[in-house]
Amino acid sequence: MEIHNIQPLFCENSKVLILGSFPSVKSREQQFFYGHPQNRFWKVISAITDSDLPTTIEEKRKLILDNQIALWDVIAKCDIVGSSDSSIKNVVANDLTTILNTANIQAIFTNGKTAYKHYNKYIFPKIGIDAICLPSTSPANAAFSLNKLIEIWSCELEKYIKE
Fold this sequence. Notes:
This protein is an alpha/beta fold. Helix content is 37%, strand content 19%.
């Protein structure tokens, strides 16, 4: 069983919570979100916030917090083969209480269908807050170009992160 080794990233000013499914092998190695170089998450977030593309963990952390975003994942531990979302079994969900009790979260988004599925199965029944499913920024999601991801994510997030 793999255990999630990344702490949630949020502050009291966070308005938007973005949840992935479970960290990739690269992210677990780096102990930070979206660590695979082919994942388009950081390109999408920097584009929709009109920010420079972050390269270090500290720059990524600052980008998220400066834009009132919170980051975490739905799954705390599970059985998984490599980074394959389709192989996830025996899920134990993360407890979002600390984030929801500290931050002023106005919307919850999932980064992809796997996160959305597990959110609805394990977390929604406990907290009763609907999540909005955004297309995955994973390189495995070849159906969406970077420009299309930016367009869709921007449309959903702009009312919360652009004031």
